[in-house]
Specification:
The complex is a heterodimer. By secondary structure, chain A is mostly helical. In chain A, helix 8 runs antiparallel to helix 11. Chain A is globular. In chain A, a hairpin with a 2-residue loop joins strand 1 and strand 2. The two termini of chain A are 27 Å apart. Helix content of chain B is 25%, strand content 33%. A six-stranded mixed sheet of chain B has the order 6-7-8-3-9-10, with helices on both faces. In chain B, strands 13-12-11-14-21 form a five-stranded antiparallel sheet. Classes of the chains: A mainly alpha, B alpha+beta. Chains A and B meet through helix 9 and helix 10 of A and strand 6 and helix 2 of B.
Chain lengths: 300, 366
């Protein structure tokens, strides 16, 4: 098809656009779209670019106000080397990885089971529970961290990485469950009935039918859980005090800012490296993520 | 293989709505039974109760002599084909068909043997590696049937399996289903709202309406001897005509007084049957195929009357004409060679050996 149209295009006589023709309108729409996108790209890429530039400068060059701050005159990887060899940056990174992986795993297990039960196993109060799950997501974390502080203290988990693994799911589970309920609800009822007749029990139905069919939704939920726990700042700020227990978000801030001394080069290098894992995850799973978020919108 | 028995089956939903109002039905081994009726008549609910997908409010269902009321679907040894096929989208055709056997831990080579056998019966051997989304509607329907066949269950249940197909494919798959049943001979319960499907497929047709069974019988029996007005009107296309009439006894013979001052004699063979109803209002029922132009025929009991067609529908093999008698629309099937046009009076011939008289109050055929 495409080959044929290309050949035809090559021999076609020059096209004269009429004012208001569809082709012409489409061209203007495209130009508008590109212009708008260009503005957004510049707007959103400026901060990372500035971070990259700063991370490649020595402390002396950063402090020097005479030069153009957007240009590196003598690039150096010294900030990166120091971060990775001295101090606790690597520990923070590993802590973040551990917490995030654990939280994603816990979140998915809870929310898949919860969503399956709430969307398929009709029981008394299931509709109310489903709404309730979403409502808990609306409670801001700034309201929660004081009571949570008491609970964590009571459990003896203050200043302990484990506390994060325990607390983060309170942020992730409601929303991921909500996504999964919607996704599971879009799976035709006949599919579970066919599985039931084929001989599946509820667990097999979930494992062999629902999870594979809802994989785009599950990946979307996973990416959400990953992003939330990787970027979480308030809870580690409140509950972690010693450097070796900290995750990246608070570790960078607490270790690289001493009083009013900001180690800008290292802060920027640390933040850039911290942004890498989410970027990688998004790059690989973006298609699934979009498919997951738009499910239901396109299924007739 | 097994017989299926439904005894006083009731299905009541929350809020007291009764979808099925105490039906009894015995389905013999190897039999192909079609449940037919308009939407909401309870046919699908009945099928789903047999499958175990719907709980029974009261009554008893037995498959192969065993009461299955409290047995989950997977242990009832049934297979079901759904209207939307319900194929597992992430599995290949082979995996879809073998899924039930895999769950039941059949050995791999036995699964392969059965799937290939079913694929041969259904002519889908070349599709086994494909995913459902790469199949056409008809192919999906075959896979859904294949999934049922490989299990070699006691009973096949079909829930409107052809409704999602276009008209041409529907006819083709109808033949296919009949062929499959003649090959595997598994007891089959088939639900449809399409009376043509019911007539062509069934050994016996069960006509349902508003949660009850109106009549059970072989297709020809339902067509020629409907028990109620509902069955008379539901079976056959175009539907039977119902003309309000009055049965009068005069001059030693029974006569039907129809609207437009038309008087038709009751055939002698029916006199005894209808005599007790003389003097009463009845519905005169006659199928369009028994209401034609006057043909040179030596058939007895042909009565003629004048009618003025208002709508003429040439179908090619026949011409349908519609006229109205005191608010009742009447349809007749004419030979296409007969010149007919709206507004020009025509002599109609009714084959009174094929007529029915119906009690307008009870709806029973007299």
């Amino acid at each position: 098809m495409s080959g044929a149209s290309v050949t035809r295009g090559a021999v076609a006589p020059p096209t004269y656009y009429k004012v208001g023709s569809i082709k012409r309108e489409r061209r203007w729409a495209l130009i508008g779209a590109y212009a708008a996108l260009a503005v957004f790209v510049v707007f959103f890429l400026t901060p990372p670019f500035y971070m990259l530039v700063t991370s490649l400068k020595s402390s002396g060059e950063i402090a020097d106000l005479s030069g153009n701050p957007w240009i590196v005159s003598s690039p150096t990887l010294e900030n990166y080397r120091e971060l990775l060899t001295q101090g606790n940056y690597v520990t923070h990174f590993l802590n973040s990885v551990i917490v995030t992986l654990a939280v994603v795993a816990i979140t998915m297990v809870i929310s898949i089971f919860a969503a399956f039960a709430l969307s398929r196993m009709r029981f008394w109060g299931s509709t109310m529970l489903a709404t309730g799950v979403f409502l808990t997501y609306l409670v801001p974390e700034t309201l929660l961290f004081i009571p949570l502080f008491q609970i964590i203290g009571g459990l003896g988990l203050y200043n302990n990485l484990l506390a994060m693994i325990l607390i983060y799911p309170t942020l992730t589970v409601p929303f991921t469950t909500w996504i999964m309920i919607g996704y599971f609800a879009s799976i035709p009822k006949e599919l579970d009935e066919a599985a039931l007749i084929d001989g599946a029990n509820h667990f097999q139905m979930l494992w062999k039918i629902f999870i594979p069919v809802a994989l785009p939704g599950i990946l979307a939920a996973m990416i959400f859980a990953f992003t939330v726990s990787w970027a979480q700042f308030l809870y580690p700020m409140a509950f972690l005090v010693s450097s070796e227990q900290m995750v990246l978000t608070v570790g960078i801030v607490s270790d690289l800012i001493r009083g009013d001394t900001f180690q800008w080069g290292k802060i920027m290098a640390g933040a850039l490296m911290a942004a890498a894992p989410p970027l990688l995850v998004y790059a690989f799973l973006m298609d699934y993520y979009i498919a997951g978020l738009t499910a239901g919108a396109t299924k007739g | 293989m097994a017989q299926v028995s439904l005894r006083k089956i009731v299905k009541e939903y929350e809020g007291g709505v009764q979808a099925v109002k105490g039906i009894d039905l015995e389905i013999a081994d190897h039999e192909f039974v079609v449940l037919v009726g308009p939407s909401g008549c309870g046919k699908s609910t009945t099928l789903r109760m047999i499958a175990g997908l719907e709980e029974i409010t009261s009554g008893e269902i037995a498959i192969g002599g065993q009461v299955v009321n409290d047995i989950p679907p997977r242990d009832r040894d049934i297979a079901m084909v759904f209207q939307n096929y319900a194929l597992y989208p992430h599995m290949s055709v082979y995996e879809n068909m073998g899924f039930g056997l895999t769950l039941r831990k059949f050995p791999k080579d036995e699964i392969r043997r059965r799937v290939e056998n079913a694929a041969r019966i259904l002519d889908i051997g070349n599709l086994l590696d494909r995913k459902p989304k790469a199949l056409s509607g008809g192919q999906r329907q075959r896979v859904a049937m294949g999934r049922a066949i490989v299990r070699d269950p006691k009973v096949f249940l079909f829930d409107e399996p052809l409704s999602n197909l276009d008209a041409k494919l529907r006819v083709q798959m109808r033949t296919e289903i009949k062929k499959v049943h003649q090959t595997v001979k598994t007891t089959t319960v088939y639900v449809t709202h399409d009376q043509v499907e019911a007539m062509t497929l069934a050994d016996r047709v069960v006509v349902m309406n508003q949660g009850i069974i109106e009549q059970v019988g072989a297709p020809q029996e339902l067509y020629h001897h409907p028990a109620t007005r509902f069955v008379a009107g539901f079976i056959g296309s175009p539907a039977m005509n119902f003309i309000p009439a009055r049965l009068e006894n005069g001059a030693g013979a029974l006569r039907m007084h129809l609207p437009n001052d038309i008087v038709l004699p009751v055939p002698a063979s029916r006199t005894q049957r209808y005599a007790p109803h003389a003097g009463r209002e009845v519905l005169f029922g006659i199928r369009p195929e028994h209401l034609t132009e006057l043909r040179a025929t030596d058939k007895p009991n042909i009565a003629t009357f004048q009618a003025t067609p208002e709508v003429v529908e040439p179908m090619g093999m026949e011409t349908l004409v519609h006229f109205w008698m005191q608010g009742a629309e009447v349809c007749a099937r004419l030979d296409p060679a007969v010149p007919v046009e709206p507004g020009r009076p025509l002599t109609m011939a009714a084959d009174l050996d094929q007529m029915h008289l119906i009690d307008p109050v009870s709806g029973r055929v007299l």
